[in-house]
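Below is how a single chain appears once it has passed through the pipeline. First comes the sequence as given, then the structure the pipeline wrote out for it. We keep one example in the README because the format questions we get most often are answered faster by looking than by reading.
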Amino acid sequence: MLSGPTRVLVLEWPGATMRILDRYIFREVLSHTLLGLAVFTFVFFIPQLVRLMDLIVRHAGGAGRITLLFLSSLPPILVFTLPMAALVGVLIALGRLSADSEIVALHALGIGMRRLLFPVGALAGIAALLTLSMTVWLGPASLRTLHRLELQLQSSQVPFAVQPRVFDERFPNTVLYVEDVSATAAHWRGVFLAETGSATGTRVTLAEDAIVVNDPANNQFELHLRGGSTHEYDPHDPLRYNVSTFESSDLPIAISSSEGTTPSLSDAELSDGALLQIHGPGWRESRIEFYRRLAFPAACLVFAMLGVSAGIRPRRGGRASGLVLTLLLICGYYMVLLVGIRLAQQGLLHPAVGVWAANIIAAIFAVTLFRRVEHGGKQSYVSRMWDALAAKRRSASPAAASVANGAAVNAPISIARVSSLGRKAAQKAGMNGFPLLVDVYVFRSFISYFALVLAGFVVVFDAFTLFDLLADISKNHVPTSVVLSYLGYLVPLLVYQLTPLAALVAVLVTLGVMAKNNEVVAFKASGVSLYRLNLPLLLTGLLLAFGMFAMDNAYLPYANRTQDALRNQIKGRPAQTYFHPAHQWIFGQGSKLFNYNVFDSDHDLFGGLSVFELNPKTFQLRRRIFADRAMWEPKLGVWILENGWVRDFDGERITRYLPFEVLSVAEITEPPSYFRREVRQYDQMNWSQLRTYIAGLRQAGFDTSRLTVQWHMKFAFPMIAAIIIFLSAPFGFLVGTRGAIGGLALAVAISVIYWSMARLFEAMGAVGQLPPLLAGWSPDAIFLFLGAYCFLKMPT
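Resulting structure:
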């Protein structure tokens, strides 16, 4: 009912009242926009956090360089997250106004819905200008700076990037293999270096160990080799073979080729003028990039209009439903955008049409929905379905059921009386059992929020990854089926990494909404302790932890291997870890290294096979075998070598030289299946395979600190899903007055602390500054202690 002050408010309508109203709505939308910006930016920045923490621990770059790298990484992410934040800010703010009946009050005062477009449009315009400045100016400049810093850091971080027992072919005309890398990455044991250039293609250097000294000023690093030998062989004259040994030697290694000019810039790094000047083969890709720079700022305005159209619809749920609706709209928009860009790349659509199609469709949908709501038309099918689901959820609430079956809400009954009746009802109903209706209700609320948040983050992250690969997809003419397969195999990794964050958000939102709606008070009055109320959440957390561990043990290694191979294909690199497929290397059983030009896996046939048999104690060459051709004989179980030679060595002396036309060598025991296997990293092995691999390396005397930390992380990271629920449950009740948005804000703060701490401890363990056990489990232990403290201090 309107009162006297309300009529006075109408009289003041033309003047200060509208300015107050505009400021009020603007502040509401702005606060939620900033929160949404923080959430989405943090999610997309998680992969960058690993590298930054590694740089901080190793002190390879100065604080200024690391800060600049951090700032340069943000604009490409903000280009995506600013439009998302504008949508989430409008939807959540107007959803809260609608849920609190403030939209109804505005209608009663004669304020039309179009008037809401002024404050919302002002904020959307600011977001659009910021996005435009990033896409047109700051984004390309930051990408150029980021590329330059990465090249500089690459030159200063090469020793830290070299992995033990992996053939590294990143260096010009050089293949590097290291048996063991110390924790500081400055000391290598067992160095094998093969120069593959046309002039020195047969020069091989072996050393027992080496000290690494960086020389980034000259774009190289220097190896101080000790106890080694150099082998030189002329393939055109098999009789010419030179061996020289040394006690110590210095060998410079170029990090990148010095030939040519400055590396060419990608389309994303070019200015607008440079993009418009491109004609010929790269015309279509440059125009797609140009129109994309204009479409993203316009998306802020379109998202704001869409948010107003969907946000002012009368509905229950407020901020929580606004967050869920935001994720759904964002997923739909970016899917349409990606399809349009893909069609434009294939020449089926003009670049402008392909890029702007998503904005046009979203704008038409927003205007149509706005007109229906403004004129009081019937709700759309989506709106009716949404309200039906919300009503069903509310009707399933045990608190609502107890209120409906009891006295009126506003009845003058004392809390003590309600509590007494509640305890008697609880005892009569057997509240100590499990599961009860309360458990099902809490579990279902948590799972609904968890599934929607996780699905939204995964889809948006997939879209962000696809945008990052668009230039490579177009340049390398990658089929759509390969791209879709890569994104599909990337999903398990994203689910594994984002499950703790989605669980954290879901717990805080679930309990925050229950506290805001006074459902927690009803449960307390019914004799249900908050400890008992949290039981289904804690059990769900343990199930999530077990599910993450099972995924990492059974399927995730296979998915990681497949998506790594597909990503290399999209990037134009061969599968596995090879950069030059014509010269492949593999470590054999015992102390043998294999190099071959061609391997026909269908016929089990080698072409240009070289076998290096090493002395495991001194890492010196003991025998070298070469054959133009090698064929597997399945009946005898041996390799038949043709047209080659065998040389045995004792230091710098050649003790035997045996040329042959046909020969079978008993030392080569590896079957063809051995050479078909894939090269794996720690994330491509489960805990059992990694443990076996670490045990073999440790038995051989290698430093396994880095791998041991990763082995502990395979257990510790899944457990954080349960621990973070245990920690966040008490905070979920405290943020009840803020509902879902308060839970989301707290989730961001907790996530930043945990992920920063986890990556910091992981990096410290990798360089030997912490024991692997402590580096892997410290974040879990700290959060478990904090969770236990907060849980026990919670007023139940």
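The CA atoms of residues 222 and 252 lie 4 Å apart.

See the next section for the split statistics.
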